[in-house]
């Protein structure tokens, strides 16, 4: 018991160091990078001294995870209130309900288009690196994972594309505010849009009631923004804990065994990121300035492996640092966490399909196979949240639609966390790219905010 206590004492000292940086009013980027570096160093030390599967390591991480899991839980706590009041407020203040269709259509269109290109990138890197499922050895964990995936597929067989779309609608908005369904985030977006439109309609007919409603929304936004600022101030500590757990719990031998797939995955993710930056440049947005402003968000997404948990920081950054409209920021962050995920629903299923294709006699370079794969990946990415979301279920849908053995998707379980970090960061960047471009298209961008070099405080921009 002595060693875990000593480890936790060191962890407490690292937290104290981050607290000192925060008190010294260092920038968020500095705090985040420091937390990331300290987490990597502390996690590596734990693994080197005690080993991945040691009791001391496990007991230490159990308590370290209180900070990491607690922070992610607090982020999830503020997601629904933030989306609800922000979207209602954006619609009430703009008083332009006609732009909602253009806004949502632009964001969803960009998400789906980039997912299709991401699938094509997955095909390219898989063939470039010569990836194949034939050479991967199935251990006990891999076989158990494969059996679990086959069982999961049985529950998905009765879910149609129409059912996925239907699940987006808020039959019970109070249940969706509690996050009771995988598609609750989108359902809350739709509910908030209806409330905002109703508020605008009332304001046109009865201006006094409209003014009272707008005042109520202002108060709600101020309270929620203060809550967001309180939670986001804990970001460096959350990243420290999350990165410690990832590094200390990673099995180096498993990573080396599947190193080819890991490298291919990150090459593919890098190409998707380049695609995002090219789209921004094509629309007159400086890629380097954009990347500098969103880096803390991408780092948190990387360490947390949670697109949903990154929503508050995503929205805050789009509004305060990129100068995007509040409507575009909220819609893109919400939609991007549940559909059109470039990394999880685009790249990953396509790479798996290309790997498995030779094992069942399919030429992975066959144009008809590639076209059908991209089409299936794009469609499944739109409705994947209706059946649970994430890379695993995206892969299940794509492989089953192509009549491929889904059990082979369990071959990569040992390196799943390592790859999932990069995929999540790319998912979040895809959402921010969609919001930034759509905001520019609709003329809702604040060029002054985007051009500003100094880093703003951790709070949403007051309208």
Can you characterise this structure?
There is one protein chain. The chain is an all-alpha fold. The chain has a single domain (1-451), classed as Sodium:dicarboxylate symporter (Proton glutamate symport protein). The protein is built from 20 helices and no strands. Helix 1 (2-23) packs parallel to helix 3 (55-94), helix 2 runs parallel beside helix 10 (235-248) and helix 12 (259-282) runs parallel beside helix 19 (416-441). The chain is globular, with a radius of gyration of 22 Å. Mean pLDDT is 84; it is low at 458-463. This is L-cystine transporter. Keywords: Membrane, Transmembrane, Transmembrane helix, Transport. It is found in: Membrane. One of its GO terms (cellular component) is plasma membrane. Pfam families: SDF.
What brief labels describe this structure?
single chain, 463 residues, mainly alpha, Proton glutamate symport protein, globular, membrane, transmembrane helix, transmembrane, L-cystine transmembrane transporter activity, Na-dicarboxylate_symporter
Give a quick precis of the structure:
By secondary structure, the chain is an all-alpha fold. 75% of the residues lie in helices and 0% in strands.
Q: Compute the number of helices.
A: 20
Number of strands: 0
Report the CATH architecture: Orthogonal Bundle
CATH fourth-tier homologous superfamily = Sodium:dicarboxylate symporter
Strand content: under 5%
Overall number of domains? 1
The whole-angstrom Rg is: 22 Å
N-to-C SSE series?
Answer: HHHHHHHHHHHHHHHHHHHH
Calculate the mean pLDDT score and round it: 84
Give start-end ranges of low-pLDDT stretches: 458-463
State the end-to-end CA separation: 53 Å
Looking at CATH, which topology would you report?
Proton glutamate symport protein
């Amino acid at each position: 018991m002595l060693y875990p206590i000593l480890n936790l004492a060191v962890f407490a000292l690292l937290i104290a160091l981050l607290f000192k940086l925060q008190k010294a009013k260092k920038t968020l980027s500095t705090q985040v990078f420091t937390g990331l570096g300290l987490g990597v160093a502390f996690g590596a030390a734990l693994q080197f001294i005690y080993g991945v599967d040691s009791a001391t390591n496990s007991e230490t991480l159990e308590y370290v995870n209180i900070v990491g899991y607690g922070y992610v839980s607090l982020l999830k706590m503020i997601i629904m209130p933030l989306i609800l009041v922000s979207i209602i407020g954006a619609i009430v203040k703009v008083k332009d309900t006609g732009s909602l269709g253009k806004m949502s259509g632009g964001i969803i269109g960009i998400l789906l288009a980039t997912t299709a290109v991401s699938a094509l990138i997955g095909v390219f890197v898989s063939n470039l690196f010569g990836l194949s499922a034939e050479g991967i050895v199935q251990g006990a964990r891999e076989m158990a994972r494969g059996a679990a995936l086959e069982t999961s597929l049985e529950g998905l067989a009765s879910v149609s594309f129409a059912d996925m779309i239907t699940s987006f609608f808020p039959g019970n908005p109070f249940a969706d505010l509690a996050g009771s369904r995988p598609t609750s985030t989108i359902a809350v977006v739709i509910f908030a849009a209806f409330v905002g439109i109703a508020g605008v309609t009332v304001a046109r007919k009865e201006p006094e009631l409209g003014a009272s409603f707008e005042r109520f929304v202002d108060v709600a936004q101020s309270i929620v923004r203060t809550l967001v600022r309180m939670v986001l101030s804990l970001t460096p500590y959350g990243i420290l804990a999350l990165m410690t757990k990832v590094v200390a719990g990673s099995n180096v031998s498993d990573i080396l065994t599947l190193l080819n797939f890991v490298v291919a995955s990150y090459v593919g993710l890098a190409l998707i990121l380049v695609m995002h930056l090219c789209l921004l440049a094509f629309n007159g947005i400086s890629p380097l300035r954009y990347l500098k402003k969103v880096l803390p968000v991408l780092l948190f997404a990387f360490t947390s492996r949670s697109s949903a948990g990154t929503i508050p920081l995503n929205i805050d950054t789009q509004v305060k640092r990129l100068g995007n409209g509040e409507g575009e920021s909220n819609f893109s962050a919400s939609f991007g966490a549940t559909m059109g995920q470039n990394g999880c629903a685009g790249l990953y299923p396509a790479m798996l399909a290309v790997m498995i294709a030779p094992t069942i006699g399919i030429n992975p370079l066959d144009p008809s196979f590639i076209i059908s794969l991209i089409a299936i990946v794009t469609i499944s990415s739109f409705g994947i949240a209706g059946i649970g979301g994430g890379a695993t279920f995206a892969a299940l849908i794509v492989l089953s639609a192509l009549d491929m053995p889904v059990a082979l998707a369990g071959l990569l379980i040992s390196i799943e966390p390592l790859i999932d970090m990069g995929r999540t960061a790319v998912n979040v960047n895809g959402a921010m790219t969609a919001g930034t471009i759509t905001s520019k298209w609709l003329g809702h961008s604040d060029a002054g905010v985007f051009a500003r070099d100094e880093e703003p405080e951790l709070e949403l921009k007051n309208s």
